[in-house]
Amino acid sequence: MSPTPHHFRGGPHALLVDPFAALVNAVYSVNRRVCDAAWAVGDWRATTAAASPHDSDRCTLALCIAGQAHYRSAYGSYRVQAGNLLWFPWSQAHAGRSDPRNPWTFMSTTFSLQADADTRSRLAAIPEHITLKPRSRCQTLLEEALDAWTGAEAGHLLRCQAALAGVVAELVRVGPPGDPLLDATRQLAAELAADPVVTLNVEALARRLGVGTTRLRELFRAATGHTPTRYQNLQRIRHARSLIANGARIQDAAAAVGFDDQHYFSRLCRRLTGETPSSWRAG
């Protein structure tokens, strides 16, 4: 029988630009274990089914501290050693066992993660076997979650929730590696964010990357969660919001980021952010 999870009330924070929203709303376990040579988990013969982002909210993370283990899933078999992080989202079937000559020691956690469709797809695309840098942010956050879980002090569940949400944020930030076009798209998106007054149409952006417009939209969705047009509009709105908060008139802020029609600008802000420009005035 599964242990009773610790539930958390609340919802994801609304972000103006970042579309990746997730909430750790239940934590089932956080532990550290020193294994013997006989340790094993799962059925080694029943790991051929890939996870579906729609099947379950349950996710598992495990970090190898020392020793070695062997794991298998629908995506292959591999050896796990110190510094390797295992990521099994959406109840991905997996099986593992200690190396009999060098049994492993690990930290692990299982938790429920509610996420929007873009975040779920991006997390599902991240490799399940990741090599972390020494003393990485993910390891530090997992140690904080373990400390909170075992400490049982006032506020420990909130600390655990925050630490695990931080690990998920790191996975989203790093994303799946090895795609030069995706890296180039992220760089292009960063340039657009740095100078939101300059906007380029889809055809011009596609030429920058040397791809067609359909491929461009796919890359932008993977890199930012948005279409190119929506992303640029959000950057323009972000800049205008800063101007308004610092005392600029709405029509002046709209014009500064390229919107000649104040009424259209206000409607677009409401549609993309759920807020009106007048709500951004200081005081």
Question: What's the layout of helices and strands?
Answer:
Elements: E1 6-7, E2 22-34, E3 40-41, E4 58-66, E5 68-73, E6 76-81, E7 84-88, E8 94-98, E9 105-115, H1 117-124, E10 129-131, H2 137-151, H3 156-174, H4 180-194, H5 202-209, H6 213-224, H7 228-245, H8 250-256, H9 262-273
Antiparallel strand pairs: 1-2, 2-9, 3-8, 4-7, 4-9, 5-6, 5-8, 7-10
Number of strands: 10
Name of the CATH architecture of the largest domain = Sandwich
What general form does the structure show?
elongated
How many helices? The count is 9
The low-confidence runs, each spanning 5 or more residues with pLDDT under 50, are 1-17, 47-55
Radius of gyration: 22 Å
Order of helices and strands: EEEEEEEEEHEHHHHHHHH
What is the total domain count?
A: 2
Assess the beta-strand content as a share of residues.
15-25%
Strand order of the largest sheet: 1-2-9-4-7-10
Which superfamily, in CATH terms, is the homologous superfamily of the largest domain? Regulatory protein AraC
Alpha-beta content class: alpha+beta
Q: What's the CATH topology label of the largest domain? A: Jelly Rolls
